[in-house]
């Protein structure tokens, strides 16, 4: 399957990523390789095979509605690249609105 | 014929209701509104790698409750899906939701139409999913702040059929949905706080057309009234556009409550592609018939059932039944009152009149109302038995009951000299006194000025200290005067 520039643009947009032209070409080629490799699987006849969605046969793995405090705010914010004492800080999402 | 009459609107609503569970949908961190930012979180709701969600049992029960109330089909087998999109308040990069196997399909909610008739609005589906965190854009100049307390809050998404025709019907539908959620104790239905949210799908077409117009999704309405306003604006906007010969763009628009208009947010070209696929981290769930019956047995009374009970069994007017069932807590209070009295109309009048105006004056809810329901029932009974007059009950006894909620009304009436005189002999004594003290008026009455009866009645109430049974006193007074 040929990966087109517009498909790369679409996927990049969904992933909120931006590429310059040379990056885009590299990504396009990588994606083509991955998709072609995966399409090898299509050679197998799966006509009467139910898709496998779960790795076990368990059903109703449920939890009682009982609350617990497992981490503090400080721990929650610990790995954030940018934060203040209360919030995760990220670049402005809405610009000029 | 005005331009607007050429067209009809087609409206479908999507309601998101935050469930009143103690914990989140797929993790055991606390589910509550208004906590300090980023304190009700866990590694699961923060979306840390390697963590696994576990389904909250209670959310299934709540979804079944709503499904039963709407007479939906409950799916016996369900699995979850990942809805993928990137946004900073969704740390996992996907929302766990139900795509192919929603817990409820079909069913209906009854609403009032513009002309007061009942109309059935179809339910397409109800499914379980999780809320995202909250992004705060307007506090800091440079950064957006993210609070993940809300991330993972269990939601029910209720999707209606496009059966609504006017903004008023949409308003009535949302009022009914909110009432239902509150009666079922599964969501507090607070649109201002966002515990109930609504997106509207609106299109217009020529009247009688079989083909729907292009659908526009409207978001950002924080009250039922604003949903109505947004839909009203959107219908006019679309009609205007079509009249100008322009096509309607399929897009998402946000409502600006200050200006009362909708503004384009996202057009279809940039539309999201959510790439749903089965969630492998949550095992499928099954719902048995027995489980559904267990939930059915613990279902509270529903507003519509109470409404018809009040009309058909208690003989109340549909207006009374409507007012009493609008708020669950009022209905439950009334239910308790009628355990004590069989005068349903009298009980309804007292609850809708004296009790409700007291609540309004004090701006309190019935949960904080001091008088036990049983005492209101007893009060209605002693009025019926003629022991206290209606006016003494409202004006004197009721305030005393508020101050002394533990004392039964009859005892209070006795202690405070409010038992009305319905003893003929003592009433005759009062009547004699009034006649003796007003010889001129008596003479005039005898000469035909029958309208003076009111004046005598007033004086009689005065000498009796307001305790004379008005009906009996009036009767006796008239007889006595006419026979002079």
- The residue ranges of chain A in which pLDDT falls below 50 over 5 or more consecutive positions are none
Multimeric state: heterodimer
* Number of helical segments with 4 or more residues of chain A: 3
Largest sheet of chain A, described in full?
A: none
Q: Could you tell me the mean pLDDT of chain A?
A: 90
Largest protein interface?
A-B, 38 and 49 residues
Point out poorly predicted stretches of chain B.
none
Number of strands of chain B: 18
Distance between the termini of chain B: 71 Å
The run of helices and strands of chain A is HHEHE
The helix-and-strand class of chain A reads: mainly alpha
Count every beta strand of chain A, where a strand is a DSSP E run of 2 or more residues.
2
Radius of gyration of chain B: 30 Å
* Envelope shape of chain B: elongated
List the helices and strands and how they pair.
The complex is a heterodimer of chains A (97) and B (484).
Chain A: H1 5-14, H2 21-39, E1 62-63, H3 73-77, E2 88-91
Chain B: E1 7-18, E2 55-56, H1 57-69, E3 73-74, E4 77-78, E5 81-84, E6 94-97, E7 104-105, E8 108-112, E9 118-130, E10 134-136, E11 143-147, E12 154-160, H2 167-183, E13 196-206, E14 216-221, H3 224-243, E15 251-256, E16 261-267, E17 277-278, E18 285-286, H4 289-297, H5 303-312, H6 318-326, H7 328-337, H8 344-362, H9 373-384, H10 390-403, H11 409-415, H12 424-437, H13 439-446, H14 453-463, H15 470-482
Parallel strand pairs in B: 14-15
Antiparallel strand pairs in B: 1-12, 1-13, 3-7, 4-18, 5-6, 5-17, 7-9, 8-9, 9-12, 10-11, 13-14, 15-16
